Amino acid sequence: MKTSYIVTLCASLLLTLASCSDDDSFSTSPSNILSFETDTLSLDTVFSTVPSPHKQMLVRNNSGDGIRITSARLQSGNQTGFRVNVNGTYLSETIGYQANDLELRKGDSLRVFVELTSANNLDTLPQLVSDNLVFTLESGVKQQVNLRAWSWDAFLLRSPVVERDTTISNLHGKPVVVYGDITVKENATLTIAPATTVYFHNGAGINVYGTLKAVGEKDSEITLRCDRLDRMVSNLTYDNNPGQWRGITLRRTSFDNEIAYTDLHGATTAVLCDTTLNDERKKLAIRNTTIHNLKGCGVKAVGCNISIENTQISNAMDSCLAFLGGNVSINNSTIAQYYPFDANRGPALTFANAKGDSFFPLNMSVKNSIIKGYEDDVIYWSRGTLDSVLNVRFENCLLRTPMPATEDSTMFSDCIMEDVKDTLTTGRNSFVLFDTNFFFYDFTPKAGSQAIGTANPETTLPEDRRGKARNQEKPDIGCYETDKE
User: Whole-angstrom Cα distance, residue 82 to residue 43?
Assistant: First the structure.
């Protein structure tokens, strides 16, 4: 038994050594070359002077023998701002921006990481920045991968504090990029000018103790979004991914805030209103706005006076709208809860007049609005004692919720309660665009929708979210008016 084991072991070792010997053979034939995952590694669009996120690629040896790489170098050295790591070796100045004497056995691969910090290009438009990563093989063959990006000069704000009335705009055509919070002090007003796009870095947001006026115009909307301009995966851009920046917080001392003709997306919670307990003074007015794709809530408030008109609030991990007490008015809005990234999404609308032993009187009016989502019931509410104020009224709305029994049935007047049995794919059947592959949505009612022509003409707003005139006789429920024959 022992002799047989030793012979077998020796034979195995000989086979292993022979195999290693074969694997360790290296060729200088010009026909043995590297295979690249891509011939162009693009970093998409980046902001000048700001370090980009890294991208990576694999370099494989699919030939029949090992390949020795004499050098891997940046063609332009350090002139373009690219930073490269090849198989753990950073191409720095101390090694002449090149890695030498790399061995790649057959079937093996090495990984390349690329970043960029580009210089200012002194132009209002993005400019191409390009370099080549050149691999020189022992055979003398040279192969290269093109590195490229579009560099865009930006106006950078790093944790700015607004102590007096200030306006942000796309100065000289440059985008505005924010790192950290914009803090608006009490008694100061921050105005975001029409046609301005503000790009927020991860974790950045607007912290308002004074007043925020983000008031765009019909053809000059404001955009509040993240600063990542590249793709997360092939079918998802960072811009379409929630939770990329913090959002807006309106503190206890903040009043008279306005958001109009604004597209706010990709935040954690879009607008968080601190407890005010003063529902007489207007906390926030939102109109003709899109709030979309949130990791937290769309709008969340405690004891605040808030109005929402002609506004789309859609796809939030938590509630699209969440109110604890306050004085809330909603008209001609679309609250669509089709958050695609987690099945444990919250409701479209949640409201209450109590939390524990504390009571928060709630007066809420919802008119001519769509409140829909994936679940059979997307409206949640809770009540404190029967004598605490919960004065809520839905009028001429399209709702995905069952009609409640007893005294709560008086909440609803001339509303359409969606039959969930007939709408298993409710979003796709109800709206013009519902692309769950690339995460694009248009919540305009689709032909055949119960929202078309069923709003109340007497309480409907004259124009829709896009500033289009509504049908005076048979207007649509929701924030978007359809074309009718």
Answer: 10
Q: 403: which DSSP letter?
A: P
DSSP string over 223-240 = EEEES--SEEETTEEGGG
The residues with which 96 forms a beta bridge, in sequence order, are none
Handedness of CA 377, 379, 382, 388 (dihedral sign): negative
pLDDT per residue over 383-421, tens digit each?
887 667 899 999 999 999 987 655 566 899 999 998 776
Q: Is the dihedral of CA 417, 423, 424, 430 positive or negative?
A: negative
How many Cα neighbours within 13 Å face the side chain of 56? 10
Are residues 414 and 368 in contact, defined by beta-carbon separation less than 8 angstroms? no
How far from the centroid of its chain's Cα atoms is residue 213's Cα?
22
Half-sphere exposure (CA, 13 Å, Cβ side) for 58?
A: 7
Instruction: Report the largest interatomic distance among the alpha carbons of the chain, rounded to a whole angstrom.
Output: 100
Q: Is 48 exposed, middle or buried (0-12, 13-18, 19+ CB in 10 A)?
A: buried
Query: Whole-angstrom Cα distance, residue 222 to residue 193?
Result: 7
50: exposed, middle or buried (Cβ count in 10 Å: 0-12, 13-18, 19+): middle
Stretch 62-78: mean pLDDT: 94
Under 8 Å CB-to-CB from 421, ≥6 apart: which residues?
none
Rounded Cα gap, residues 430 and 477, in angstroms? 12
CA dihedral for 169, 172, 175, 176, sign (positive or negative): negative
